[in-house]
């Protein structure tokens, strides 16, 4: 069965086109901690010279190096998020068989876009027939950040180095229509 993932596609494209970056620790500070207090230069110069003339004066403390891991992108201002997108959007794909051995399989993708820029997408699949049933539970496809400029929907999550285009979008009445390399998807607002 063909499963379509709007945001997961952007992650795969970004991961394939660039070297994989390490994920920054969620509790890692964005700015390095304060360096240890160094003695002021004028006080170092006032110290008595060492007894051994070959012994150098102590060097002042060096600042702590910045975190070498890439920092997540700066939180985008609300003006860079299309307010019409905020909410819960659902795309349903239903497959029914015909004939005497009827079976049905439904895949529901849910895209939650929050006003603060957080985005979560998950998939749930269920199915059944005469002598079988399936419940795939909920699978998180994406948990990161989003922004949009009125035409293009962008996402960010590790290992992407920055926001990456995921799809173009438009509205058709009450429906959200996205177009990406995964095809055209129609989303209905649920909240």
Indicate the topology.
Layout: H1 6-17, H2 41-46, E1 87-96, E2 103-113, E3 118-129, E4 133-148, E5 152-156, E6 164-172, E7 175-180, E8 183-189
Q: In words, what does this structure look like?
A:
- The chain has helices at 6-17, 41-46, and strands at 87-96, 103-113, 118-129, 133-148, 152-156, 164-172, 175-180, 183-189.
- An eight-stranded antiparallel β-barrel has the order 1-2-3-4-5-6-7-8.
- With 191 residues, it is mainly beta.
- It starts with 5 loop residues before the first helix and ends with a strand.
- It is built from two helices and eight strands, in the order ααββββββββ.
- The protein is 9% helix and 40% strand.
Query: Could you give the order of the helices and strands?
Result: HHEEEEEEEE
Number of strands: 8
Q: Strand order across the biggest sheet?
A: 1-2-3-4-5-6-7-8
- How many strands, what sense, and barrel or not for the largest sheet? 8 strands, antiparallel, barrel
Question: Briefly, what is this?
Answer:
It is built from 2 helices and 8 strands; from the N terminus they run ααββββββββ. It has helices at residues 6-17, 41-46; strands at residues 87-96, 103-113, 118-129, 133-148, 152-156, 164-172, 175-180, 183-189. The radius of gyration is 27 Å and the shape is elongated.
Identify the notable features of this structure and list them briefly.
single chain, 191 residues, mainly beta, 8-stranded antiparallel β-barrel, elongated
